[in-house]
TrEMBL record:
<keyword id="KW-0004">4Fe-4S</keyword>
<feature type="transmembrane region" description="Helical">
    <location>
        <begin position="127"/>
        <end position="149"/>
    </location>
</feature>
<dbReference type="InterPro" id="IPR051684">
    <property type="entry name" value="Electron_Trans/Redox"/>
</dbReference>
<keyword id="KW-0249">Electron transport</keyword>
<keyword id="KW-0408">Iron</keyword>
<feature type="transmembrane region" description="Helical">
    <location>
        <begin position="193"/>
        <end position="213"/>
    </location>
</feature>
<feature type="transmembrane region" description="Helical">
    <location>
        <begin position="104"/>
        <end position="120"/>
    </location>
</feature>
<keyword id="KW-0479">Metal-binding</keyword>
<keyword id="KW-0411">Iron-sulfur</keyword>
<keyword id="KW-0472">Membrane</keyword>
<feature type="transmembrane region" description="Helical">
    <location>
        <begin position="75"/>
        <end position="98"/>
    </location>
</feature>
<keyword id="KW-0812">Transmembrane</keyword>
<dbReference type="Pfam" id="PF12801">
    <property type="entry name" value="Fer4_5"/>
</dbReference>
<keyword id="KW-1133">Transmembrane helix</keyword>
<feature type="transmembrane region" description="Helical">
    <location>
        <begin position="169"/>
        <end position="186"/>
    </location>
</feature>
<feature type="transmembrane region" description="Helical">
    <location>
        <begin position="44"/>
        <end position="63"/>
    </location>
</feature>
<dbReference type="GO" id="GO:0046872">
    <property type="term" value="F:metal ion binding"/>
</dbReference>
Length: 328
């Protein structure tokens, strides 16, 4: 029996929907009070679970179309970010019911690393970060980071090949090291909570100003040159079995893909090597620009098409679950 493309597409969309439904159902039973919906009316958590599963189905259905992939990635990422920061603003300005614990915490990615080092404990967020890297490589930086969605929005559309600053990579690895050092110094010196809060707020505000460069250069400067979590993800992504590569036999070196990469991970020199730069987030925006099928996902010994579908199913499941429960 021949399986049509539409059947494969339908099956692929159902997998993240059912996975999201199962995972969030387990969370709803095991962790009562986590879902925002149940704080407003009885059974509200189950409505959230069903809506998240429906969202996963729609998103996976749309993103399987290569022509729509970049657009729907941008839409879904912004939905996730606006939902996260929207609930934060409602928690601050209206009612603490919108906050996860009823208390305010700093929603800055740097705190995933700095907070863990300062507390000297391996908490939930570092564990979640490592788990997502293991399951999906660097998808944290292209689908799952609430700050990254803003940087992506500010960067806008590329019309010419970006010219990344040469110090982008050294800068963010330096900031990663400094984040660890500052956290250790703050812990050992007994720095006051007010002083620590000031450092964190200053780091976050600086990050927003860095995004001005994203707007001017039409590439994600915050993610590519400032974020310490992105630096950690780019180094740790190789623990995942997923890869993103350039098929040198199919590639004609036309360079059409370069204008689609907001991370500065594609250049003529990198294309010739068959490997995107280390800051490649596997976002897949570049795939639609290639008319030769040279840009491919790789997973174990599977072909490029199957590898891409599996990666997409995992990432959409993660994002749908994050969307349902991610709050400060």
């Amino acid at each position: 029996m021949t399986v049509s493309f539409s059947h494969i597409r339908l099956f692929t969309a159902f997998v993240p929907a059912l996975s999201t439904l199962f995972l969030l159902s387990v969370v709803a039973v095991k962790v009562p009070g986590l879902f925002l919906g149940e704080r407003f009316f009885r059974g509200g958590c189950w409505l959230q679970v069903v809506l998240a599963a429906a969202y996963a189905f729609l998103l996976c259905w749309k993103m399987q179309d290569i022509r729509l992939r970049a657009r729907w990635r941008r839409y879904s990422w912004l939905i996730f970010s606006f939902s996260f920061f929207g609930q934060l603003l409602l928690g601050i300005m209206c009612d603490s019911i919108f906050l996860l614990s009823g208390e305010l915490h700093f929603p800055i990615p740097m705190m995933i690393i700095g907070g863990a080092v300062y507390r000297w404990e391996f908490g939930f967020m570092p564990l979640l970060l490592i788990l997502t890297i293991l399951l999906s490589g660097p998808a944290w930086c292209s689908h799952l980071c609430y700050f990254g969605a803003l940087d992506n929005m500010v960067a806008g559309h590329l019309s010419l090949p970006p010219k990344p600053y040469k110090f982008f990579l050294p800068a963010r690895y330096t900031i990663l090291v400094l984040t660890v050092i500052v956290a250790l110094v703050a812990k050992w010196s007994g720095l006051s909570y007010v002083a620590i809060s000031g450092i964190v707020v200053l780091f976050g505000i600086t990050g927003f100003f860095v995004m001005i460069l994203s707007y001017k250069r039409h590439m994600m400067v915050h993610c590519s040159g400032y974020c310490p979590v992105a630096a950690l993800v780019s180094l740790g992504k190789y623990i995942s079995p997923f890869r993103f590569k350039i098929n040198k036999e199919a590639c004609t070196l036309c360079g059409a893909c370069i204008c689609r990469c907001r991370y500065g991970a594609l250049s003529k020199a990198q294309i010739k090597t068959g490997k995107p730069g280390i800051n490649c987030s596997y976002c897949g925006d570049c795939i639609s620009a290639c008319n030769h099928g040279a840009l491919q996902y790789a997973f174990l010994n599977m072909n490029a098409d199957h590898s891409q579908r599996i990666w997409l199913m995992i990432v959409i499941t993660l994002q749908s679950c994050f969307l349902a429960i991610a709050r400060v």
